[in-house]
Amino acid sequence: MSTSRQKGAETSKAKIYWAIGIVAAIVVIILLVYNSGILVKSQTAATVGEEEYSVAQVSYYYQTIANNMASQAQQYQAFGVDYGYDTSLSPSEQYYNEEEGVTYADYFLESALEELQRVTILCQEAEAAGYTLSAEGEETIASNLNYLTMYSTQNHVSEASYLKMLYGSYMTKSLFKELLTDSVLADEYAAEKAASFTYSDQELESYYEENADALDSYGYRFCYIYADTETTTDADGNTVEPTEEETAAAMDEAKEKADSMIAQVQSGTDFNTAAQAYVDESSAESYSDPEYNHKTEVLGSALDSTFSQWMMEAGRTSGELTAIEVPDTGYCVVQFLSRDKAENSYQTMNYRSILVMAETTASEDGSDAAPTEEQTAAAQEQAQALLDQWEDGEATADSFAALAAENSADETTRENGGLTENANRDSLSADLSAWLFAADRKAGDATVLEYTDSTGAVAGYQVIYADSFGEIRWKYQAANALRSADYEDWYAQVQESYPAALTDKAQQIPSL
After folding, report:
1. CB count, 10 Å around CB of 483?
2. Residues 6 or more apart whose Cβ sits within 8 Å of residue 397
3. pLDDT surpasses 50 at 14
């Protein structure tokens, strides 16, 4: 990948000495080239196997990790939460692990080397296996380059300047595209390699028997009854935390409330009705909804750690209740409802959709405004009319596909009859996932659902058709766990052939 480019750079530097007699000129040229960063950025900062990587290349991985950390810290800061990383300081001015003397610059650099090693391994293994970048991968690269153009324009700088802002002063567009291509190829081949590990039903059953607690599906209700403690402020404006005695008294009061609520439910009161009298005021209204915090088909691996151990204990019976202490915070009241292997619960599904976008009216500045209530209602009416048309006709998958091809605003699925394959319940919108994976869902069912934009606002409606079911949920989870372990074993073995190391030139990365 980069060896030939490194050799090319060495050849270019050698050509400087073509006029040996002009010593002064040579010195000036060398200084100018060095000061412009050409020599620095091409010096070897890391090696992976037999590959050499320049300061500019390592800088890309370093800055990517640093940018992600800064972005996460800023998101937390927006909510008043300290993420532990100070964006006003340089990475070398703050500790990632103060006890061991590891700065964030050290951490970013080691992480960059790990990612560079991963990309190198996967790209070279892909080449050895004859795997090449897919059309979707090419689209991903093109999309990223389009974003580069868009964001640089929005920031009123050139693409070259924007890349340097993100990845350091040595980055160029051609190098960015090259490194981006490597990363996309690496991710694709990782998925391809992982998918190559397959398992028989017997192997999945064996894994289930050993991990039933995590793979079973649970049903339950819960609420938190918080200890009523308050912080105060002293005469100097300092925050005064409640004393141990005050906290203990508040915990005792929360325990009494939890026990009273349990007694009330055991006497026949609905869980959510009883909860309204004991939870804090901000939550009481939520519990007026009888389905609030009523959980169904929750995998054991996804249970709240507060009560997961209790839920998994053998002999648990439907309707059983308990109050679990959350130290210095209060009590969690939990009602166990069910636990089973869920042989008819699916993780993936194939469905078809017809997207009807609400019309919008351009605002004064020329941008599209949010649709009005009338425009949204018109979209809903159009979606319902399409569903009615389908139901009045043959009402088959083929007739729905034909209707989608003619009417859907979703260009990515329209040509395929609105079909989305292997839709994962965990990556769909809440409403769509809830409808598609409802316990009583049957292939051939259809409905109209709201379609929301990235802000959560209703932007239209979609007619949804349940086409066919995919993988059983517990089998999907079992196969993924086995596949992950097998992939890690494969990677660890291959990794031994690609030793990675940094050179002293890595310290010349711009922000170090």
Report:
1. 17
2. 352, 444, 465, 467
3. no
